[in-house]
Amino acid sequence: MGSTETATDQTFRNTSTPNLFSLRERTIIVTGATGGLGSQLTRAILESGGDVIGIDRDEIPPAATWEPLQALAKSLSRSLTYHACNVTSPSQLSSVFEKAASEVPFPLRGLVNCAGVGTVGDSVDYSEDETKWTLDVNLAGSLYVAQAAAKVVRKQVAEGRSVEEQGASFVFVASMSGYISNKATPTAIYSASKAGVHQLTRSLAGEWGSSSSPAIRVNSISPGVIHTPMTKEVLTHKEWTTVWEQEAMLKRISGPEEYRGAVVFLLADASSYVTGTDLRIDGGSTGW
Q1: Distance between CA atoms of 199 and 188, rounded to whole angstroms?
Q2: What does the alpha-carbon distance between residue 169 and residue 217 come to, in Å, rounded to a whole number?
Q3: Which residues contact 281 (CB under 8 A, 6 or more apart)?
Q4: Which residues are catalytic?
Q5: With bands split at pLDDT 50, 70 and 90, how would you rate the model's confidence at 148?
Q6: N or C terminus of the chain: which is more exposed, having fewer CB within 10 Å?
């Protein structure tokens, strides 16, 4: 192996351990930013020193979720903006991302794609419309979001707003369902879409790690079952939750706040040599 040291190697070596997890002087795009998981990750990024461009489908973000985040950003002197966007529209994503990134003080250095849908249904009767919607949002949407963000990152370097050595880090939210067949509920199309996110992660990491300028690291996390507004109705089914609790080595269902540390790690310099990897955060459900 060669011993040539790059500027990135030098920066990493000279960074103190606490600062390895800092997101200062960088902007992160979070899709699905007003959801149960997305809002927690937005909070974590702000608290770690980063600025956030929040993306979601509603023209006006829900006040109950967004106002506390705005108050937090103000108290920390951080930038927090919101833009409505459809993650299944590549042209809309490119336009919104470019405009949003041009209006914030620090360059775009990261992406967290939380936008997604969870669907349950007997596969023999699963509708064409719902199949297409699930795949469009969870899988194709992940690609479209990454494409739009990567174009902004490259443009920043070309315009001299960011330096090549800084690079960027993208994080997809996949699922433990990309590895296993859910015992409690029939989720064939959802599970297939999340397995696709795992492969998309590896493929983009391979493409953008060396041939991209700057290098873009691409990783994913695979959550277990989470208590969020989106899963509220599903979790009313005791016969399902009992199975999920039993299957988890920790014997419980997770909260959205339990994913903050992993995502900050993957966005920050602490994970500078991590790419093409999926981090399972599932309470041990897939470890048996």
Answers
A1: 17
A2: 5
A3: 221, 222, 223, 224, 254, 258, 259, 262
A4: 190, 194
A5: very high
A6: N
Measured from the Cβ of residue 241, the count of other Cβ atoms closer than 10 Å reads 18
Distances (CA, A) of 258 to 22, 136, 251, 288: 18, 27, 15, 21
Residue 273 sits in a domain whose CATH number is 3.40.50.720
Sign, CA dihedral 185-186-189-193, equals positive
* Residue 151 located in a structural domain: yes
Q: Judge contact between 167 and 189, C-beta under 8 A.
A: no
Question: What would the two tokens of residue 45 be?
Answer: 């990024």
Dihedral sign (CA 57, 89, 226, 109): negative
Q: How many structural domains is the chain composed of?
A: 1
State the DSSP string of 121-158: --GGG--HHHHHHHHIIIIIHHHHHHHHHHHHHHHHHH
Does residue 2 fall inside a structural domain?
no
Segments forming the whole domain that contains residue 134: 21-281
**Cα–Cα distance between 256 and 43 in angstroms, integer?**
11
Higher-pLDDT residue of 171, 230: 171
Q: Does the pLDDT value for residue 6 go beyond 60?
A: no
Query: Residue-wise over 253-276: b if at least 16 C-beta within 10 A, else e?
Result: bbebebbbebbbbbbbbbbbeebe
> Is residue 8 over pLDDT 60?
no
Q: Is 69 helix (H, G, I), strand (E, B) or coil?
A: helix
Task: Return the structure tokens found at 258.
Answer: 């339990």
